[in-house]
Amino acid sequence: MLISSRRSTSATALIGPVLIGLVSIGLTACGGTTKGSTAASQSAAAPAPAAAAPASANPDAPIKEGIKIAFLPKQINNPYETIVDKAGIEAAAEYKGEAKEVGPSDASASSQVSYINTLTQQRQDAILIAANDANAVCGPLQQARSKGIKVVTYDSDASKDCRDLFINQASSEEVGRSQIAMLSDLIGGKGEFAILSATANATNQNTWIEFMKDELTKPEYKDMKLVKVAYGDDDDQKSFQETQGLLQAYPDLKGIIAPTTVGISAAARYVSGSKYKGKVVVTGLGTPNQMREYVKNGTVEKFALWNPKDLGYLAGYAAAALVSGQITGAEGEKFTAGRLGEYTIGKDGEVILGPPFTFDAGNIDEFDF
Predict the structure, then answer these.
(1) From the CB of residue 137, how many other CB atoms can be counted at a distance below 10 Å?
(2) What fold does the segment set 172-305 form as a domain?
């Protein structure tokens, strides 16, 4: 069951009808950072003035050839981010641009700063970044914008005044609320559960979790209790250990929501080989290829995500539209993202890919990413 982009019926996006009411999003997908970095604090403290946006957009302007863009993920070895960035690089090839991926091996708050500075010195036409910390990257991104470089965030946003556009996987509210709805369905609406997040400062994770907490205030979830939010720092081994710690600390735990691809696969791996298999539900945001084994062995009944390939592809075309002057980032402007069709910029420069999708044993073999 393939899913089409909500913006264009001709799109080949994998996102489609949401199961369970509103389905959640994902992934990482989803990384974060740690607080207290001196470099991060200094970078955010005195941002340079941003470059002024063009007075008006020219939607009929052609995409310029030879545009240079760079993808800066949360961490270079994150499987989800690799899928996203590779698709963005492929998009650039379609419009005869040049694209690359660079980034740190860890997801700390200040780890992306030196890469932003280098890309600015290289005079990239656009920097596309999945921010580890919304504020730590702000100063360097403002410096880049002051030199005419366009900044597009994807997956995890930076502060709004530090970028031109944010390419969001799905509505943050939809993601958070649907995660609670999914877990409630899996545990019969009763019991204790925990959240295994990425890093404590991850913008997307924190936003989703706030909506999860708000959703829990509804009467239908009165018998569900969030006992702990743990942080695996988007590190496989730490996420594995945090899962073990949660299950030992809370013997009555009925479920774990991991809205991060690294976290959900680590949690499923631990539960799969433990006495908790079949007793503790694991769900969240993951990729089919990561989770196929655990769906088929009964550890995970269902989980959600969007198509990370489409996220990167959309970001790549959004950057080209900005650089070419088709859009400025203002609400209501429209641009065409290749095979995905037309998109409209929303409030605060946000572009939403589309609704997420639920994967289970009945459909997981239809997908390969």
Answers:
(1) 32
(2) Rossmann fold (3.40.50)
